[in-house]
Design brief:
heterodimer, A: mainly alpha, two-stranded parallel sheet, 5 helices, B: alpha/beta, four-stranded parallel beta sheet, three-stranded antiparallel beta sheet
Amino acid sequence: MRLGYPSSIRIIRVPCTGKVDVLHILRCFERGADGVAVVGCREGDCHYQSGNFRAKKRVERARQILEQIGIGGDRVRMFNLSSSDAPMFVRFAQEIHAAVLSAGPNPIRAARPARGAPTETAARAMAAVNR
Amino acid sequence: MIVAERKSIEEIVEQLAGVRSVLVLGCNECVTVCEAGGKKEVGLLASALRMVFLQQGREVNVGERTIERQCDTEYLEEVRDMMDSFEAVVSLACGVGIQFTAERYPSKPVYPGVNTCFMGAALERGVWAERCQGCGSCILAVTGAVCPITRCAKRLLNGPCGGSTSGKCEISKDVECAWQLIIDRLKALGRLEEYERLSPIKDWSTDRAGGPRKIIREDLRS
């Protein structure tokens, strides 16, 4: 079909959206992502029965946290589609792209003292995370 | 388990005004099971705090660590080395763990990251209900293992009262009458005659009425 979708989107593959945790979504924003789309199978079509329903709840929780901390809950969305439905994927990609454009850049990126190399705090934080 | 609820991020941020480094300290026991203060919640809170501080233009070092239990000295000792790097601690343990952490590290301000609520059980995923008030003299043997101290709003020892309607308590239609549960249970066990026996006056000195409680087991002391 060779359909195009916004080049700003980076795809991270997971075995099932049920694997996606709230923490994964928050980490994306902490590291400067402007938006996150969790794209799962259609409701009722999950190979693992309830993976996409779990993801839906986690996305909701992530939205609440992002709203509370001033990043904006609208930057994260859950989409459901069939794996063979490329035109639908393109539509969703355009939708999250538009949502991110309207929300503007992630305020975390602007707030970081220097771009590129992680700050001392971030380095220490990462060390703590990786322990 | 001891059931706790997460405090709002806003409240925790307020507590940390002026702090330049903070350790978010989780507990692997009860608060992990009720998803209020385990490793995952530590990660979420730390991540959220970092983003809040960055937006406030504050350079705050946010550390993460979850230990087995915050109510035992040996586990709290595990973080002694890393404590030096932090100005303050946000503890996601229950109230016991928060206080015990503060006792072990007297020079560190320790802030609560959760509201500790009650001793309860998980009715289903995401739903917890109180089942014990730790009154110190258990009467479950005579009440068919349904606790009227916890589950009756009036803590009646000889119930039900006149506020019991269709098995529900007058305080809310969502609250079951503990004494109706006791009667139903005793009936099912074929022990309804026990319901007829009046409970004697309870010794409340073992409850909070006697002040903060302590148990000393000489056979276990070192």
